[in-house]
Design brief:
By secondary structure, the chain is α/β, with parallel strands linked by helices. The chain is built from 17 helices and 17 strands.
């Protein structure tokens, strides 16, 4: 079995039950592999999905949850809040997507990917129900089944709270069956427009549907029109909204390759000199959202979250593939930015953390993304790039990407993904930075290379 983006380990002697579970799950319709136009035809009916969840005991309703959506930063907010809650003594369960190296990363128990034997065991407990409920290939998708499995596993693991990341949008997403203690909306922008709508307002309306009746919400910085939509949804659902831009004050003291230091005043508490190890000014915003969420949970007496829990949680949080340094000489940085907004954020992070350093870029994209606008953002800061393509149905072909990169007067070397890092290293000095970006699938492929070949990363 060769390692691939669906989670099979190269050359590993897998537990046969785990391998069989993966084979069966990935024999379903995988909506992450299909193009957006086809995805729009996929029938997503949450009432039918809830009916399926009832057959396995409604695990999504058995524990307190926090539901998180947004265009950028939602995964980082989840990881940061998860770290804070763990410091507060909570046993956490989380579901995130996509995975980078292996499918079981999508189900996190107390901050770590679920064990393979438990993944297989919990699947064996619900698989008969999943099979009996299949209508056709347009239903019981990979994401729906993995989400149900995550709900089931998190409940069985007797966690204190589940942190649930939306897969796509909000309204019809398979995660939008929970009634959360708190809804969180990170920054909303343009992405998945063929599915969610071609304006930021349409996308915001879709994502706002995670806010449930009489359940509070917190949000990060948003465009005025977006914030207005979120306020309307809160009024409609009789929910209270805490906004980073209207209800808080933040002062950023420093942003560097050593992390960031910032102050934050929320409606509940004042914070001075919070230290964050995740890199970039955008992560300060995500950390502020996480602290605001923690303060809301504490304010509502949901959990006891003290000052040291927040401080330790921010310092200990680690989020693979998002501004992650996997080698220091020269620096190799993996970042899953894949939108023009993400590209702008990444460029700003590089300026803040490594000013005046030459960057060599490793680029790979999905063909349905706005690659030209992404390249416009990085072109002034990119003279040399390695273009590559992962083995994924939606990946942009290498020759097409090479043509686009050269159009922006960037010196471009095409390379297979398994030799892209070596190609970049050939032209790098110890003072340079190699930045791999454009797709989480690219980041996952390169991270697997470090894990399984270079052995420089200890864990998933």
């Amino acid at each position: 079995m060769s390692i691939d983006i669906y989670g099979f380990d190269a050359g590993a002697s897998l537990d046969p039950d785990y391998a069989a579970a993966l084979d069966e799950i990935y024999n379903l319709l995988d909506t992450e592999r299909i193009d957006p136009a086809t995805f729009r035809t996929v029938h997503r009916d949450l009432e039918v999905y809830k009916d399926f969840l009832r057959t396995i005991g409604n695990p999504h309703l058995a524990i307190p949850t926090v539901h998180i959506t947004g265009t950028v930063g939602k995964g980082s907010v989840l990881i940061l809040l998860e770290s804070i809650l763990r410091e507060a003594g909570c046993r956490t369960g989380s579901t995130v997507s996509p995975h980078l190296v292996e499918v079981r990363e999508r189900i996190r128990i107390n901050g770590s990917p679920i064990a393979r034997n438990k993944f297989a065991d919990y699947w064996s407990q619900i698989s008969d129900h999943a099979r009996s409920r299949q209508v056709d290939n347009n239903y019981r998708t990979v994401f729906e089944v993995l989400t149900a499995l995550a709900f089931y596993a998190i409940n069985k693991e007797k966690v204190d709270i589940g942190l649930i990341e939306v897969g796509l949008g909000g309204n019809l997403d398979a995660t939008n069956v929970v009634h959360p203690e708190l809804s969180i909306l990170s920054r909303i922008g343009l992405d998945h427009m063929k599915v969610l709508g071609d304006t930021v307002e349409a996308i915001a309306h879709d994502k706002s549907q995670i806010i449930k009746k009489k359940s509070p919400a917190v949000t990060g910085y948003q465009e005025n029109s977006v914030l207005s939509i979120l306020k309307d949804r809160c009024e409609e659902t009789m929910s209270d909204l805490w906004s980073l831009q209207e209800d808080c004050k933040m002062n950023v003291h420093s942003v560097s390759s050593e992390g960031s230091v910032f102050d934050l005043t929320t409606p509940f508490r004042k914070w001075k000199n919070l230290h964050l190890t995740l890199l970039g000014r955008h992560q300060v915003e995500n950390a502020a959202i996480a602290v605001l969420a923690a303060d809301r949970l504490a304010h509502d007496n949901k959990f006891r979250i003290d000052e040291n829990h927040v401080r330790e949680g921010l310092e200990k949080a680690h989020w693979a593939g998002r501004g992650e340094i996997v080698q220091s000489d020269p620096v190799i940085l993996l970042d899953g930015a894949h939108t023009p907004q993400g590209a702008e954020t990444l460029v700003r992070m590089l300026k803040d953390c490594w000013p005046n350093r030459r960057c060599i870029w490793i680029l790979g994209f999905n063909k349905d993304k706005d690659v030209e606008r992404f390249l416009q953002q990085i072109a002034p800061h990119c003279s040399t790039a390695v273009a590559t393509s992962v083995d994924f149905p939606r990946a942009m072909p290498l020759d097409h990407l090479e043509h686009l990169v050269r159009h922006y007067s960037i010196s471009c070397q095409p390379s297979p993904v398994d030799s892209a890092i070596d190609s970049a290293l050939e032209s790098a000095s110890s003072d340079d930075i190699i930045v791999a970006t454009g797709s989480l699938y690219l980041v996952g492929a390169l991270r697997r290379q470090f894990l399984h070949e270079k052995k420089t990363l200890a864990t998933l």
